Amino acid sequence: MRRITFDIETAGGFAGSIPDLSEIELTIVGIHDSQTNEYSSFLKEELPKLWPLLESADLLVGYNSDHFDIPILNKYYSGDLTKIKSIDLLKEVKQVLNRRLKLDNLAEATLGQKKIGNGMEAVKWWGAGEIEKVRKYCLDDVRLTLELYEHAKKHGMLKYKDFDGVREIKLDTSDWEKENSSSALTHTLPF
């Protein structure tokens, strides 16, 4: 099974309390490809190189990806990325806890690691022309997401910090890597 773990960074559209997805611009996409075990990143103008990788994936793995990353990417894609099976770790956690947790909370409690920044810092770095800093931040989030995914698959749980200490979130991962009956190809490759 080819799994693409991914994260995006963006700019714009964050003026209110709820981001306006129509005003948000993609800046960079970071991925890990399970087939090659390599990390890669793509600026907005390099997206045509990304599409064949996503189209050949059996599974997309992200954090807040169903609600944020995939809809943003779909603005640039001629097909429909929602047709590819996805695991959104935030969505999985929220189904169990009935609340959202930050990636940083899960990474620190489960892996003993913290993020190297936050999304608003990445927006500032991008605005200041610090593209390599944004790239490094994005790929680090991909790495944390991948490690959390693999931990959940192996142990059936993730950990988070709560007011009274570290707690476990039991996750049913049994269907995560079951083959999807439909093809992952979604219309950009020539036939």
UniProtKB/TrEMBL annotation:
Signal sequence segment: none
Transmembrane segments: none
Boundaries of every YprB ribonuclease H-like domain copy: 6-152
An annotated Gene Ontology molecular function: nucleic acid binding
Lineage: superkingdom: Bacteria
Pfam families: RNase_H_2
InterPro entries, sorted: RNaseH-like_sf (IPR012337), RNaseH_sf (IPR036397), YprB_RNase_H-like_dom (IPR038720)
Name by which UniProt lists this protein: YprB ribonuclease H-like domain-containing protein
